[in-house]
Write a structure and sequence with these properties.
Length: 118
Amino acid sequence: MLKAKQGLEAHLVVRRERVMEAEKKIAETEQSARLLQSEREKLQLERDDVRQQLFAEKDKVLALENERKEFKGLKLINVKCWNELNPQDQLEEVDEEPSKEEDEDEDEESGEEEEGGA
Protein backbone atom coordinates (compact mmCIF):
# COMPACT_ATOMS: atom_id res chain seq x y z
CA MET A 1 0.00 0.00 0.00
CA LEU A 2 2.85 2.38 0.77
CA LYS A 3 4.43 1.69 -2.63
CA ALA A 4 1.12 2.35 -4.34
CA LYS A 5 0.75 5.60 -2.42
CA GLN A 6 4.30 6.66 -3.33
CA GLY A 7 3.66 5.70 -6.95
CA LEU A 8 0.52 7.84 -7.03
CA GLU A 9 2.35 10.77 -5.43
CA ALA A 10 5.15 10.45 -7.98
CA HIS A 11 2.58 10.29 -10.74
CA LEU A 12 0.87 13.44 -9.33
CA VAL A 13 4.22 15.25 -9.14
CA VAL A 14 4.91 14.45 -12.80
CA ARG A 15 1.40 15.57 -13.74
CA ARG A 16 1.80 18.84 -11.80
CA GLU A 17 5.10 19.51 -13.54
CA ARG A 18 3.49 18.91 -16.94
CA VAL A 19 0.58 21.19 -16.00
CA MET A 20 3.00 23.90 -14.87
CA GLU A 21 4.98 23.57 -18.14
CA ALA A 22 1.77 23.75 -20.15
CA GLU A 23 0.62 26.84 -18.21
CA LYS A 24 4.02 28.43 -18.77
CA LYS A 25 3.76 27.76 -22.54
CA ILE A 26 0.22 29.15 -22.56
CA ALA A 27 1.38 32.32 -20.80
CA GLU A 28 4.28 32.71 -23.27
CA THR A 29 1.93 32.17 -26.20
CA GLU A 30 -0.55 34.70 -24.85
CA GLN A 31 2.26 37.23 -24.34
CA SER A 32 3.48 36.61 -27.87
CA ALA A 33 -0.05 37.03 -29.19
CA ARG A 34 -0.41 40.36 -27.38
CA LEU A 35 2.89 41.57 -28.81
CA LEU A 36 1.89 40.49 -32.31
CA GLN A 37 -1.48 42.21 -31.95
CA SER A 38 0.13 45.48 -30.84
CA GLU A 39 2.63 45.23 -33.74
CA ARG A 40 -0.26 44.61 -36.14
CA GLU A 41 -2.15 47.65 -34.84
CA LYS A 42 0.99 49.76 -35.15
CA LEU A 43 1.50 48.61 -38.75
CA GLN A 44 -2.14 49.35 -39.59
CA LEU A 45 -1.74 52.89 -38.25
CA GLU A 46 1.45 53.31 -40.25
CA ARG A 47 -0.31 51.99 -43.38
CA ASP A 48 -3.16 54.45 -42.86
CA ASP A 49 -0.67 57.31 -42.51
CA VAL A 50 1.09 56.29 -45.71
CA ARG A 51 -2.25 56.09 -47.53
CA GLN A 52 -3.14 59.58 -46.37
CA GLN A 53 0.23 60.85 -47.56
CA LEU A 54 -0.29 59.12 -50.91
CA PHE A 55 -3.69 60.72 -51.39
CA ALA A 56 -2.26 64.12 -50.41
CA GLU A 57 0.54 63.68 -52.97
CA LYS A 58 -1.98 62.63 -55.63
CA ASP A 59 -3.98 65.77 -54.89
CA LYS A 60 -0.81 67.86 -55.26
CA VAL A 61 0.00 66.18 -58.58
CA LEU A 62 -3.52 66.79 -59.88
CA ALA A 63 -3.33 70.44 -58.82
CA LEU A 64 0.04 70.83 -60.57
CA GLU A 65 -1.29 69.17 -63.72
CA ASN A 66 -4.29 71.51 -63.70
CA GLU A 67 -1.97 74.50 -63.28
CA ARG A 68 0.18 73.26 -66.15
CA LYS A 69 -2.85 72.87 -68.40
CA GLU A 70 -4.08 76.31 -67.41
CA PHE A 71 -0.64 77.81 -68.09
CA LYS A 72 -0.45 76.01 -71.44
CA GLY A 73 -3.88 77.37 -72.36
CA LEU A 74 -2.89 80.88 -71.33
CA LYS A 75 0.34 80.59 -73.29
CA LEU A 76 -1.60 79.53 -76.39
CA ILE A 77 -3.99 82.48 -75.95
CA ASN A 78 -0.98 84.77 -75.53
CA VAL A 79 0.56 83.49 -78.78
CA LYS A 80 -2.73 83.93 -80.65
CA CYS A 81 -3.09 87.47 -79.34
CA TRP A 82 0.51 88.26 -80.27
CA ASN A 83 -0.04 86.92 -83.77
CA GLU A 84 -3.19 89.03 -84.16
CA LEU A 85 -1.44 92.19 -82.98
CA ASN A 86 1.84 91.54 -84.80
CA PRO A 87 1.08 89.99 -88.19
CA GLN A 88 4.61 90.76 -89.40
CA ASP A 89 6.23 88.89 -86.47
CA GLN A 90 4.24 85.66 -86.11
CA LEU A 91 4.91 83.16 -83.33
CA GLU A 92 4.37 79.45 -83.86
CA GLU A 93 1.74 77.73 -81.78
CA VAL A 94 3.84 74.80 -80.64
CA ASP A 95 3.18 72.21 -77.97
CA GLU A 96 6.17 72.05 -75.68
CA GLU A 97 5.54 68.40 -74.91
CA PRO A 98 4.94 66.06 -77.85
CA SER A 99 2.17 63.58 -77.30
CA LYS A 100 3.00 59.97 -76.52
CA GLU A 101 1.80 58.90 -79.97
CA GLU A 102 4.20 61.35 -81.63
CA ASP A 103 7.07 60.02 -79.51
CA GLU A 104 6.25 56.46 -80.58
CA ASP A 105 6.07 57.50 -84.26
CA GLU A 106 9.46 59.21 -84.00
CA ASP A 107 10.97 56.12 -82.37
CA GLU A 108 9.64 53.91 -85.16
CA GLU A 109 10.94 56.29 -87.87
CA SER A 110 14.40 56.55 -86.34
CA GLY A 111 14.51 52.74 -86.06
CA GLU A 112 13.73 52.37 -89.77
CA GLU A 113 16.43 54.87 -90.71
CA GLU A 114 19.03 53.01 -88.65
CA GLU A 115 18.10 49.69 -90.29
CA GLY A 116 18.16 51.19 -93.80
CA GLY A 117 21.51 52.87 -93.23
CA ALA A 118 23.18 49.74 -91.91
